Amino acid sequence: MDDNQPITGAQQQQEEEYLDQSPPLEPISSTDLDKTMTEAEPVPLLSVIDDVEQIINKEMSPIEEEIIETKVDHWIVPAWSQLETRSTGPVIEAGGHQWNILMFPKGNNQNEYASVYLELTNAKTGKPDDYACAQFVVLLSRPSEPTKYIVHSAQHRFTSDESDWGFTRFIHLDSAPETSLDSFLEQDSIRITTIIRVVKDATGILWHNFVNYDSKKVTGYVGLQNQGATCYMNSLFQSLYFTNSFRKAVYQIPTENDIPTKSIALALQRVFYNSQFMNTAVGTTELTKSFGWDSFEAFRQHDVQEFNRVLQDNLEIKMKGTPADGAIKNLFVGRMKSYIKCINVNFESSRSEDYYDIQLNVKGCKNLEDSFKDYITEETLEGDNKYMAEGYGLQNAKKGVIFESFPPVLHLQLKRFEYDMMRDMMVKKLILNPILVKTLINPKDINIVLVHSGDLSGGHYFAFVKPEKDGKWFKFDDDRVIPSTLKEVLEENYGGEQMPIAGVNMRPNGRPMNRFTNAYMLVYIRECMLDQVLSPVTEQDIPRHLAERIETEARIREQKRKEKEEQHLYMKALIATDETFQCNQGFDFANFDEKDALENRIMVLRVRKDQTFASLKSELSQGIGLPDTQFRLWLMVNRQNRTVRIDIPIPKEEDQSSLDEVRAKFATNQVSLRLYLEKASVFDSDGQAVFPLTTVPSAQNILIFIKHFKPELQMIHGVGHVYANKNEKVCTIIDTLKEMIGFNQDEEILIYEEIKANMIDAVDFDATFAKAELQDGDILCVQKKLTPEEERLVTMHGGLTTVNEFMNYELGKVPVYFGPLVPDESSPEFRLILHKDMGYEDIAAHVARELNVDNTKLRLINPYVQNSNHATLRRFAGMKLGKILQNVYSAGGAMAQKARFLYEKLDVSLEEIESKCSVSVTVCTPTLKDIQVVDLLLPKDSSIFDFKKALVAKGVRFESKTGTRGLRIFDEVEGRFDKEYTDKLWREAVSMRPFVKVYAEEVPQEEVDRDTENDAFINVFHFHRSPTRTHSVPFKFVLKPNESLEDTKKRLQARTGLDDKEWSKVKISIVDDQDNVQLINDEDTTLFSTYTYKPGDAIGLDHIDKNTKVDKTGAIFIRG
Fold first, then answer.
1. What gap in Å lies between CA 213 and CA 203, rounded to an integer?
2. SS3 annotation, 943-1004
3. Containing H/E element for 634?
């Protein structure tokens, strides 16, 4: 270690509190706790000479790692008071390394305690990657009293960055305390005993601090970045990534023309590719965006099994008709049969269905074998729970399931939580006995373990993966990948108590703490298919277009990174020409905004700051095809009146100056160079360009720029420039101006000076240029003088007759961007220049002209005050554009963001829409699952009969096989059935509201056939997990007294339209008007056999919502 560098055992320069490493807590005493104080046995005195083993057992934490060597060293320090400020002890050979004590007798970064550290002697001089792991104990004692000592212990990974570790406050320097240094000195001598236990680092990360840790370098793999709460997703993606057959199948989905943020398949391919070839953790933002998620959704944790099912359902659809078609089923889908077999009669009902994972109970099960036995245990249906067998009536029966086949890749979902009635919450179950886990789970069989740390309300997810058949295990924890041991995988993630370590994980009562990490998913690969499923993914398996696209993006990123890294070496040079000025149809010389540079004919060059001015002229010469002697460059500056004008030509003497020197000298307050390129127009007899003198004291010439205003066209533009003698009158250039513009010589003209944005003044022809205060770079605007008749015609068409009036009006113009409310190919995005004084009708006319549509069939939507297209303020509520855009402007008056409006093309006129009621109808046919949305426009006095007629006119047909063809119109509130519309209710709604949203369904036959005296209606709604997270279409349901639960379920399933696979995941509950939930058990004989019905009760169907976004329901949504 550098002698000049202050030293501590930890990071030497950090806070002292962080540095001080106290000794570990004493282990729990083995003394009998029932003994009285007088009976307690005295603590035996240990000698640093004779009782080293006992001291090691007491001071060093127990470890399971292999011990390479334990070494004890006694160093008698003969003259403590004469030690240097920084002193080192003799070299100790231990475990193949050299060690020494490093001391600061008078303290390190403080002066109250002596500081003592253990140092890896050759850490600074050896290879950068060399390290050693060691536990160590340092004891100070009197040479003659080996049983009186002060002790500190620690363990550390010694590296070149952290070559020493120890104790800043080892022993007090004050002479008063009994444990001070003086009490251990004997004639200025002291014994320092060092016990070093060098430990073998089997994983390569033992006691690693993970500062500057490189996952790829250590393990060969990289992790995934966490976006906020996406660790659950990351653990699943790692599981899928290392199921190599699945990765190959994903690569087979055609994505060549896809956009990553809009294609789940392409985004997943990119994550997989980057995980294989990148050297750092891979981002998943593109992937979550392809799901249709926003940043808020990335901070919401979801159930992994649920997310996996939704993802795989989506991918299965993407794979249809591609080479990957059927890959997911071939890998992950098994088949099971559910059956009910009568005991006393020959009748059996069975149904076979696919499964993607198996959810196993773990409570009361010693191991997975017990969990499987529990899963397939037959249930006897008897007594009140007899089975209604068709043709045989109520019968005793056996109910169970049989596994018909297992998939090549089996996902076992461990049910880790159960409802605790005493605590009214879901709690984690204690899971499998680690010893039994080892006997049941053959390490060769299991390949992936997904782990959750925490409780139901939150926590963290990570994965243990064995990527190769007989390979090593690794822990994938978001962006970090570390080697793992088989013990960590099999024993430390199944609940239960931890291995007791004194002072680390012990409760006050002496019992070890529970683990909070639990395996929740185990992934097995069929042994005979291991080689196939884990077959390496080669470059031949990866679509070429994918690799090429990512490699191209990487090159561009590298180029941008390099540009950013070298940014301080470069600057921008913005070059304006006469063409720039001529295309300017607004105020000032030009608009120098870089994003509009191409449109404004401005050259933007990225130039090195150390480049000479001469080399810039040479580049420009080649670009415009003129020798650098035939043009000169003027500096353009910001004037105090907020205009940009030419200032001075850059003198030839600056040719060898750097561009940064030119900028600093002539444009100190500018970060870039803005230059005007003046082409020569005068040549001498030898053909050499001649530029008038303007900047020397004797110069009489000034360079004036000319614009032409055309009142009849309401347009102004640049024309060119002229040189004028500043001592002559303005009228001397009138003929030249007429010739430049193309006026007849007898045409009478007006001239105005463009001073600043709100100051356009008429110029006195008889004043000299000097008296008129005209100078280099000033702009004169020329127009012909209109006759009274010409003025009348211009005014009649809404025009302005003079430059100053026109320019003042132009100041109110702003660029406004328009985009379609619903994007499609015939609805482009575009920009219009509009005036702040325009109202709705004027703006709509301009937009309609741009779209070539009838402006009466166009609706404009102001996004600054409206969130819904059905809540549009009537024609901007009469506000002018300037008033609407107040929120777009910053405090300085500039636009802080692009002004943007939405437009909607209409089938009928806006006036008709505003005079009618807009109705959105969700039509449910043939089942409640099969929906289509129909938009109607109905008169305010329409009846329910008119509404039905309008539906039929839109082509709506009700197609159920057994329906009544009768129509029910109803609405919902927060996902629950609210009211059914009668003609009276309907008329009230459409007459008073601008927008109505309703549902339309065919009245089922069972309602017509119901027993009106005994049957009743009950409302049914769908939710996920919580009754407040509703989704899907609610409905009315006929409740039949004494109907078996099995029959009620069948009718419910028929009403919902869910198939058997979807229905198998539905849990039926009774939800009261306070949202209390009573789960209905499969063993119940009827719906209300264990629960008494109360008014206001509803049936709740708890299942995943695959159709709506999480905003309303909280369920996982992935865009199709």
1. 14
2. CHHHHHHHHHHCCCCCCCCCCCCCEEEEEEECCEEEEECCHHHHHHHHHHCCEEEEEEEECC
3. strand 631-638
Euclidean distance between CA atoms 1107 and 310, whole angstroms: 10
Give the model confidence (pLDDT) of 783-834 as tens digits.
Answer: 999 999 999 999 998 899 999 999 999 888 888 999 998 888 888 999 999 9
Cβ neighbours of residue 1078 closer than 8 Å, sequence gap 6 or more: 1069, 1070, 1071, 1072, 1091
Name the pLDDT band for 78 (thresholds 50, 70, 90).
very high
Cβ atoms 840, 861 nearer than 8 A: no
Give yes or no for a contact between 1048 and 1093, defined as CB atoms under 8 angstroms apart.
no
| pLDDT in the model for residue 107 | 92
Contact 1081, 1089 (CB under 8 A): no
Pairing of strands 779-784, 701-710: parallel
3-state secondary structure 1004-1062: CHHHHCCCCCCCEEEEEEEEECEEEEEEEEEEEEEECCCCEHHHHHHHHHHHHCCCHHH
Contact at 8 Å (CB) between 580 and 590?
A: yes
How would residue 458 be classed by pLDDT, with cut points 50, 70 and 90?
A: low
Q: Quickly tell me which residue has 């570990």 as its tokens.
A: 24
Task: Please give the pLDDT value at position 14.
Answer: 39
Rounded to an integer, the average pLDDT of 309-328 is 88
Mean pLDDT of the 956-966 span: 74
The Cβ-side half-sphere exposure at 930, using a 13 Å CA radius, reads: 14
Write down the residue that tokens 């509130």 correspond to.
Answer: 973
For residues 160 and 130, what is the distance between their CA atoms, to the nearest angstrom?
7
Whether 528 sits among the annotated catalytic residues: the reply is: no
DSSP 22: P
Output the six-digit token pair for 739.
Answer: 């010739």
Reported as a pLDDT band with limits 50, 70 and 90, residue 64 is confident
- Active-site residue among 172, 460, 1031, 1103? 460
The pLDDT, as a whole number, for residue 502 is: 45
Q: Give Cα 769 to chain centroid, integer Å.
A: 62
| pLDDT of residue 169 exceeding 50 | yes
- Label residue 961 by pLDDT band (50, 70, 90): low
Lowest mean pLDDT among 133-147, 450-464, 910-924: 450-464
CA–CA separation, 253 and 267 (whole Å): 11
Average pLDDT, the chain: 84
CA distance 948 to 1003: 14
- Measured CA to CA in angstroms, residue 77 lies from 115, 140, 182 at distances of 15, 10, 14
- Contacts of residues 205-212 at CB distance under 8 Å and 24 or more positions apart, as own/partner, are 205/482, 205/483, 206/65, 206/133, 206/157, 207/133, 207/155, 207/156, 207/157, 208/157, 208/482, 209/157, 209/162, 210/480, 211/161
Query: E-strand spans in 173-209?
Result: 190-199
**First-to-final CA distance of the chain:** 60
CA 893 to CA 887: how far, in whole Å?
Answer: 11
pLDDT for residue 10: 37
CA distances to 266, 812, 833 from 850, in Å: 36, 21, 12
Q: Which two tokens stand for residue 649?
A: 């030509």
The secondary structure of 98-119 as a DSSP string is EEEEEEETT-SSSSSEEEEEEE
Q: Using alpha carbons, select from 970, 963, 925, 914 the residue that is nearest to residue 944.
A: 970
For position 39, what pLDDT does the model report? 42
Q: Return the sign of the alpha-carbon dihedral for residues 579, 580, 585, 587.
A: negative
Per-residue pLDDT, 927: 86
Beta-strand ranges (E) seen in 821-915 are 830-835, 858-861, 899-905
Nearest alpha-carbon partner for 704 in 645, 636, 637: 645
Q: Which of 133, 231, 342, 917 is catalytic?
A: 231
From the list 962, 966, 1033, the residue with the least C-alpha distance to 1003 is 966
Active site residue 411: no
